[in-house]
Structure to design on (97 residues):
């Protein structure tokens, strides 16, 4: 089990730059995305949701103390989306080499 960010970086072969996940619900064309990115002040979790094919939607930002705390929030969001019958469309992690 990977317990620290340093272990995670060694496992992945580089420094973590961020991650992105997107869920979609086919029955009503809704989407939900999260971006976990490092900024000047630390880690930031951006959430975006709306309806595909429109310019309507919302975005919120949640500051995170660490990558691990942001990842825990992503896990909570993922469980909630799957419970509401959204399907995970993609999940991407970005890292430096």
């Amino acid at each position: 089990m990977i317990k620290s960010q340093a272990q995670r970086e060694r496992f992945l072969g580089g420094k973590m730059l961020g991650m992105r996940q997107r869920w979609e619900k086919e029955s009503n064309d809704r989407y939900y995305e999260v971006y976990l990115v490092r900024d000047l002040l630390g880690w930031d979790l951006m959430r975006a949701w709306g309806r595909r094919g429109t310019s309507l939607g919302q975005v919120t930002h949640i500051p995170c103390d660490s990558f691990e705390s942001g990842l825990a929030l992503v896990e909570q969001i993922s469980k909630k989306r799957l419970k509401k019958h959204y399907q995970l469309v993609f999940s991407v992690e970005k890292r430096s080499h």
About this structure: The first helix runs from residue 5 to 12. The chain is about 25% helix and 50% strand. The first strand starts at residue 16 and ends at 25. The chain has one domain: 5-95.
